[in-house]
Design a protein that fits this description.
- This protein is mainly alpha-helical and 395 residues long.
- The chain contains 13 helices and no strands.
- Helix 3 packs antiparallel against helix 12, helix 6 packs antiparallel against helix 9 and helix 8 runs antiparallel to helix 13.
- The longest helix has 37 residues.
- The model has no long low-confidence stretch (mean pLDDT 86).
Length: 395
Amino acid sequence: MERLWNSNYIKVMIANFSLFSAFYLLTPLLPLYLYETFGATKDVIGLVLSGYTITALLFRPFSGYIVDSFPRKTVLMVSFMAFAIFFAGYLAASTLLLFTIVRTLHGGPFGTVTTANATVAIDVLPSSRRNEGIGYYGLSNNLAMAIAPTFAIFVYSQTHNFQLLFWLALLVATFGLIVDSTVKLKHQPADVRPRKLSLDRFFLKRGWLIGVNMVFFGFCFGVISNYLAIYGKQVMGITGGTGTWFMLCSVGLILSRLQGGKALRKGLLTHNAAEGMVISLVGYTLFIASPNTIGYYGSAILIGLGNGHLWPAFQNMMISMAHHNERGTANSTILISWDIGMGIGILIGGVIAELFGYSAAFWTVAGVNLTGVLLYFLRSQQFFKRVQAIVNQEQ
């Protein structure tokens, strides 16, 4: 069997860990920063934070096309450098308007670098271990989610200094850039052939229903990840539990990735996806139905376990419906779907919380998650099998 853990794959994993660590250092505390520094209301916080995701979403289709059309190492380096530099913008943003502009624009390089790095990871994997490798690749995201929010909240509790967190995020992102610069890729000539401009160059149309299904799950995580700290503090009286929640969620994610690796190697994509979404549904329901310590922390593990099965399964399904020269587009498509869900979740979650309270926002999450599960079992699973069979015949 071909070797999975080659040096380039490990470097890409480390760089991805750094990328998402920089991201998660700020995610749980930005609502608090906007509230304490600028006096922003709940709906304004939702609007400001959703801008990042919306911009990432707008850049995703073009990033998939660029990654498939130009040398991937160059695309990766330029986008990673831009992603790192934007952290310096938070240090300079002295008003809510300036912060909103910087935060919104920052989503662009984030959308591009995550697509580029994930596609490079596929390129450096042996073909016989690709499903498994994509599953393990997500461990770097999960470890970042386990460590970065907990560390950030600890630093803030000791210093109450948001500027220090912005500096840390800048340094961590720069480290990831340096690691990625050492990755060696086979020469990939730029695709200079004239090609008809079509939607398929920016979005994998064959995978549209899988993408729609992913929107529902992105919505749920968008609400819970962005409003968890404020909900815990204002509604449940848990002031220091956000970092622990993210750590437990990440433990679930890591365990499910490790346990699900064997199933992915066997190609049991639909089985992994089904298992993950049902576990997630139980987790989201527990979170809101049991507003106590057991429900709060128990939901973290279940949501982590569920997403850890669901994400790599959906990503592999999308890639399985793509031709070899469409990997970047397939990656950007599944990320676009997640970003759409996250953006809508952050925006709608903030509005519902402002009008009806956080409990109503999280009950909405449980309802949206149930809708996504029903869509998968009634339509998406059969859709994937049919399209995959057609693509396999074409290749």
